[in-house]
Design a protein that fits this description.
Blueprint lengths: L3 E8 L2 H13 L7 E5 L5 H4 L8 H22 L18 H27 L19 E8 L3 H10 L4 E4 L6
Antiparallel strand pairs: 1-3, 1-4, 2-3
Length: 176
Amino acid sequence: MADNISLLAVFPDLTLAADAIDQLRSLGLSDDHMNVISGIPVTEAMLGRPNQWTNVPRIAGGGAALGFLAAVLLTFVTPYMYPQPIQVGTQATIPGPPTIVLLFELTMLGMLLSTFLGVFLDSYFPNYRPMEYVKEVSDGKIAIFFTCPKESKDKFTKAMTALGAEKVEVAEVDHL
């Protein structure tokens, strides 16, 4: 890692940043060595990057299954825990409409809570890793943070400048 240098290229437009990512790939950098810093939400498809893999859908599905299981236990097991089931008028021991509502609500509650937990854990919050901050990003610009070999610094700088980068510089740590 000692023979690599971190560069930061700032672009005024999303299209220019997407072209720069393609150029970085053609110069031999993989997506693991690039990080897009933006003040606006940017999807991977907008920049032509591979989709990020996440566990949130699996965690949400597991939470929904646990919520459904809790609802089934609550509606079908609880009435028979009494020595003699409570009879309300002519209703069955397990009435249909309230059972459907309870099954739905507890399933959704389990999915909601597990989705929140999954997103919370998947976003590494709280994050104790060092994060990059670029002041120009607050003004609506797009920054690309990438590492390249030290001997190729001039080649990468010229390539980014030719694609419309407002500035390409060695990345420094700014304390917030």
